[in-house]
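Provenance and format

Records in this collection were gathered into a single text stream. Each protein contributes a sequence line and a token line. The two records reproduced below are adjacent in the stream.
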Amino acid sequence: MTAEELQQALIDWSVKHSGYEDHRNYIGLSGIADCPRMIFRRYFNSCVIEVREHLRTRYSYEMEAVIKHRLGRMGILGIGKKISAYLGRVQGHVDGEISGKLLEIKTIPLGEHLPTDRIPRKVFYQIQGYMFYGAYKEALILYFARENGSFRTFQVPANREVGMEIDTKIKSILDCIDRHV
């Protein structure tokens, strides 16, 4: 095998096993903060991404697995609930639980990008959706910088009002999906 063949083989394998789902037949709570039209389009259409995005996705999942392994070795990681609502038409994939709290792991490229005083809106809504449909009272969000291995953690309580807002949005989107408008 030549150097070029090795490089291409690694790229091909990484793309094939990146974990990126180009189409989901459900509404994913990880993108619930997006506009309803975008969520509707994502439900019906595949999304093609570039090779570099597949590589980034693969690496992020690998880093997440390393963190979960570390938390498991520490004896504090529990298996999270599978989040499903509306007969599986709405789903969320929880990274785990710690002391009964939902755990969400986010990997980011640089330590300087770690949130300082609050989490981004997109993550806030994702977590609130998980807590609403998964009946969690609190969430722990762990940010991990791929560049240098630094962490930042946040504890977020469930907000029932935001959960109801998300549920109303989802009902509206499902109604549009059912009518295909």
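Adjacent record:
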Amino acid sequence: MVRIAVRPAWVGVLEFLVGTAVGANSGLFYEHRWELATHHALHGDRAQALRLLAAIPDPPLEWPGAPALPAWRAWISDPDDPETMARFERSLTGLNRPAERLSRARMAWLLGERHARLGRRADAIRLLETAASGYAAMGAGGPLARVSAALDEVAAPLPASPRQDLPLTRTELRVRSRWRWG
């Protein structure tokens, strides 16, 4: 059996943008590279992620997105560390220029989804709400729909009681028979 690796189309687009240096006269040059590195880091290829960033210094502070890029770079290096994630989140407050609104929403979305995968619901909800409000303010309906779906999934209520359709364990059966519950 031949297995074919399937990857999202946007990864191919990012590889093209990074490989051809599209956006070299703007902050997008850096953001495209950082986002592709993030994809690799979050999908188990941290070495490729670090290679993408190794030869590229952080941009000058006046470039769009620059206040958050050093913290984003650190997060790519250690994507599951809560303190690194918190530093990256704090850096988003430095993205307050109009040209940085989209970047701030995207970075909040990436962080929010990672928190969700790690089971940190409160952090995930806060960041996904930040991303959703940013996309809503810009009228970016496509990303807003995707972030809203992620937010709905994370914010779904947890079951208040044990599921009734699961078989009881031996201990639960013993307790049930002793106390004649149910």
